[in-house]
Amino acid sequence: MKTLIQGGTIVTASDKYKGDVLIYGETIHSVGSDLSAQAEKVDKVIDATGKLVIPGGIDVHTHLDMPFGGTSSVDNFETGTIAAAHGGTTTVVDFAIQQRDGTLRQAWETWMGKAEGKAAIDYGFHMIMSEHTPELEKEMGALVDEGVTSFKLFMAYPGVFYMDDGGIFRCMQRSGEIGATICMHAENGIVIDVLIEQALRRGEIEPKYHALTRPPRAEAEATHRSIALAEMAGVPVYIVHLSAAEALEQVTAARTRGLSAYAETCPQYLFLSYDNYEEPGFEGAKYVMSPPLRDKANQKELWRGLKRNDLQAVSTDHCPFCFNEGKQLGKDDFSKIPNGAPGIETRMSLTYDGGVAAGRISVNRWVELTSTSPAKIFGLFPRKGTIAPGSDADIVVFDPEAETVLRAKSLHMNVDYNPYEGRRVKGVSETVLSRGEVIVEKQSFSGKAGRGQYLRRKSRFEE
Ligand code: URP
Ligand code: ZN
Ligand code: ZN
């Protein structure tokens, strides 16, 4: 199969120019300004006049089909990846979970089973380690050989995923030896649990207390500590879902010192705020996630971090629970509301609209934050994350002028609400190719569940 994408503006992290992309099979054959002579020799021509031609989005933080908070996230690998494709994302890196007393291989195989036959786009896995044992520490190397080259550890959620500093440090040391990266959920869960207990004793049960018992300092302290532990262990650390300016200060200071400290933020922290928890009734439960939404003033600092490369990626932390089911578990106790919100489908449009169209970041930086930089940090580049000969033909024809209104009923995520309901955004993914196959044509899914492939990611030693 040969496809020509003609007449668009090709945008990568570094370049922007009018040109054509010629695809042979699953990969990009050539890129140039004079490929129209090929039009008669190809099977399909996609007219991209007036559109941006960008590398497919890469979302390195999703939780599909994840048991959590007494229930399960409601998008599985089929519904979640089809929604992702609609939104211009062609790769996800999801989190497999090692169960207490289980092995890492069991966890990886379980999550491979969840994705196989279902995923519509390519996927990889990080590994959540729920505990440290000498056996698990030893096993980490075998996981890296399978392409699971990052491990997520938690300073939050005591009794669930929480690991103490000793365990974290040992996992970090091992990751340093084997070329893996540590992803850190940086919140001081021990202090937060005290605050939750005290709030509940005072009868403070509404959703807003989720935010009020998880102060930004608890995130900043844990961010500082995880970077210090990683420095001593000699391993790169990637702070996931960074929400607060105080935490960002810690990352900025570390990077200024030349440390391998990286961080992502998510659209919810750029576009929503603590005010959402004050919505009437139980509405605030829709926004219960950890870390929580912060005061609006943080948003400006996060945008500045994105612009200046103190933050290197925007991912989604997509972890949806229905408002009318899962979220109701916490009707009488905010601490029982399952943590997480939907976002896999709306990331590219929200960040284009709020970032590029609003003049906060360049279009190149947008591509870098949503595709190139996560591909580099997590061992997928240059197969993914750019438009260049030899790279996978994961390409989005993106209409920068089209507008859409975000509504749960017209989006494809398997969840009964949307945190951005009614928000008008400029910039829409129109046509999406995954390894050369058109999987979204004029905003309509034309791919197949199960066509997605597992991505064996590179370790730092294979760069
Ligand atoms: O609230 C969140 N973030 N839910 C997903 C689990 C996690 O900590 O990433
Ligand atoms: Zn987390
Ligand atoms: Zn998460």
Looking at this structure, what is the CATH superfamily of the largest domain?
Answer: Metal-dependent hydrolases
> Helix count, per DSSP?
12
Shape: globular
What's the quaternary structure here? Answer: single chain
The CATH class of the largest domain: Alpha Beta
Can you list the ligands bound to this structure? N-(aminocarbonyl)-beta-alanine, zinc ion
Q: Average pLDDT across residues?
A: 98
What structural class do you assign from the helix and strand content?
A: alpha/beta
CATH fold field value of the largest domain: TIM Barrel
User: Number of DSSP strands?
Assistant: 19
> Uncertain spans, ≥5 residues at pLDDT below 50?
none
Can you name the CATH architecture of the largest domain?
A: Alpha-Beta Barrel
- The N- to C-terminal Cα distance equals 30 Å
Residues in helices, as a percent range: 25-40%
Strand content: 15-25%
How many whole angstroms does the radius of gyration measure? 21 Å
| Number of structural units classed as domains | 2
Largest sheet: 9 strands, mixed
Describe the structure.
This protein is of the alpha/beta class. It folds into two domains: 2-54 and 393-445, Urease, subunit C, domain 1, CATH 2.30.40.10; 56-377, Metal-dependent hydrolases (TIM Barrel). Helix content is 30%, strand content 23%. It has twelve helices and 19 strands. It has helices spanning 77-86, 104-115, 134-145, 165-178, 189-201, 208-212, 216-233, 245-256, 267-271, 297-308, 347-357, 363-377; strands at 2-11, 16-24, 27-32, 44-47, 52-55, 57-62, 67-68, 71-72, 89-97, 122-128, 150-154, 181-185, 237-239, 261-265, 313-314, 395-405, 424-434, 437-441, 444-445. The strands form three sheets. Strands 1, 2, 3, 4, 5, 16, 17, 18 and 19 form a nine-stranded mixed sheet that branches. It has an eight-stranded parallel sheet with strand order 6-9-10-11-12-13-14-15. Strand 11 (150-154), helix 4 (165-178) and strand 12 form a beta-alpha-beta unit. Helix 7 (216-233) runs parallel beside helix 8. The two termini are 30 Å apart. The mean pLDDT is 98. The site of N-(aminocarbonyl)-beta-alanine has 9 residues, from loops. The site of one zinc ion has 5 residues, from loops.
